[in-house]
């Protein structure tokens, strides 16, 4: 039987094992490989597992140890999946797929699984459908420049959004922009968040905690109708009921990080096995 798992620290409360079990009905095993030392976790993977998911703080380490990288993984510089292949260890980043599928589901009004079947993982092909849905080139604001922020910037840009990346340290935002020159990413300080939020069609919020600038959000911030907010942190979200209501009242939508988690798991599990897991049962876990 093939064996899979998750490395990171801490991960004792991870939903990944439950998602995997639901998706495959127990036909494969999925273990938590918890510990603060990457090399020890990596050794356990190579000694006894076919593939692993990777979470904090090991995504950069995992990228560095891989023999081959997907195009997306190479762009983000971080890996959340490692898989043994005949050509060595293959690395991918399904955070990107999780973001894109969450956003496209809302924009196109299609089920995310159908979008994945339609485009595979080359979501650049969806940019035309996105532009058609809006009737103009939409704008995206990505808040935060960690690993999730890099994936978010790539996700927004490849699906046709005019993207601005904000961070407390502007240098980090500028570095991401320089690594992706083909997308002409704009950058700035997180202090500029209120203005950019008011002007954007899509916010992807990857900062772990609530920034003071969120206090400036009001009804006037939603004068552009249909604004979508996607937040990475599903355990301790930074956006409260008032913001969710304002988005809904302006024909917009708030998307929990649980949707992002679900779609990145779906994409990753398919890479692991070559099979499509039971998405309905995975959804029930969340």
SSE topology sketch:
Layout: E1 3-8, H1 16-24, E2 29-34, H2 38-48, E3 51-54, H3 59-65, E4 68-69, H4 71-76, E5 81-85, E6 88-92, H5 95-108, H6 112-119, H7 127-134, E7 139-143, H8 147-158, E8 162-167, H9 170-179, E9 186-189, H10 193-199, E10 202-205, E11 228-231, H11 241-249, E12 253-255, H12 257-273, H13 279-285
Parallel strand pairs: 1-2, 1-3, 4-6, 7-8, 7-10, 8-9, 10-11, 11-12
Antiparallel strand pairs: 3-5, 5-6
Helix pairs in contact: 1-12, 1-13, 5-6, 5-8, 5-12
What does this structure look like?
It is a single chain. With 286 residues, the protein is an alpha/beta fold. The chain has two domains: 3-93 and 261-285, Rossmann fold (3-Layer(aba) Sandwich); 96-255, NAD(P)-binding Rossmann-like Domain (Rossmann fold, 3-Layer(aba) Sandwich). The protein has helices at residues 16-24, 38-48, 59-65, 71-76, 95-108, 112-119, 127-134, 147-158, 170-179, 193-199, 241-249, 257-273, 279-285; strands at 3-8, 29-34, 51-54, 68-69, 81-85, 88-92, 139-143, 162-167, 186-189, 202-205, 228-231, 253-255. The strands form two sheets. A six-stranded mixed β-sheet has the order 2-1-3-5-6-4, with helices on both faces. Strands 9-8-7-10-11-12 form a six-stranded parallel β-sheet, with helices on both faces. Helix 1 packs across helix 12 (257-273), helix 5 packs across helix 8 and helix 5 (95-108) crosses helix 12 (257-273). The protein is globular, with a radius of gyration of 18 Å. The two termini are 26 Å apart. The relative contact order is 0.14. The model has no long low-confidence stretch (mean pLDDT 94).
């Amino acid at each position: 039987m093939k064996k899979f798992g998750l490395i990171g620290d801490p991960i004792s409360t991870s939903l990944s094992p439950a998602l995997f079990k639901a998706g495959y009905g127990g036909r494969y095993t999925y273990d938590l490989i918890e510990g603060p030392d990457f090399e020890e976790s990596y050794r356990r993977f190579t000694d006894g597992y076919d593939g692993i998911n990777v979470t904090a703080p090991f995504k950069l380490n995992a990228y560095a140890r891989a023999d081959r990288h997907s195009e997306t993984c190479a762009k983000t510089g971080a890996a959340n999946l490692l898989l043994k292949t005949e050509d060595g260890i293959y690395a991918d980043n399904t955070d990107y797929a999780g973001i894109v599928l969450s956003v496209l589901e809302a924009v196109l009004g299609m089920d995310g699984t159908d979008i994945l079947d339609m485009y595979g993982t080359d979501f650049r092909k969806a940019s035309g459908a996105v532009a058609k849905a809006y009737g103009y080139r939409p704008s995206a604001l990505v808040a935060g420049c960690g690993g999730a922020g890099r994936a978010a910037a790539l996700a927004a840009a490849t699906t046709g959004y005019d993207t601005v990346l904000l961070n407390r340290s502007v240098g980090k935002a500028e570095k991401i922009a320089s690594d992706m020159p083909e997308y002409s990413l704009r950058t700035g300080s997180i202090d500029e968040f209120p203005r950019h939020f008011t002007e954007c069609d899509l916010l992807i919020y990857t900062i772990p905690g609530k920034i003071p600038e969120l206090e400036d959000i009001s009804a006037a911030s939603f004068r552009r109708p249909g604004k979508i907010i996607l937040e990475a942190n599903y355990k301790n979200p930074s956006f409260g009921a008032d913001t969710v209501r304002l988005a809904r009242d302006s024909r917009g939508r708030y998307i929990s990080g649980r949707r992002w988690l679900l779609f990145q798991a779906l994409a990753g599990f398919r890479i692991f096995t070559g099979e499509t897991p039971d998405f309905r049962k995975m959804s029930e876990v969340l």
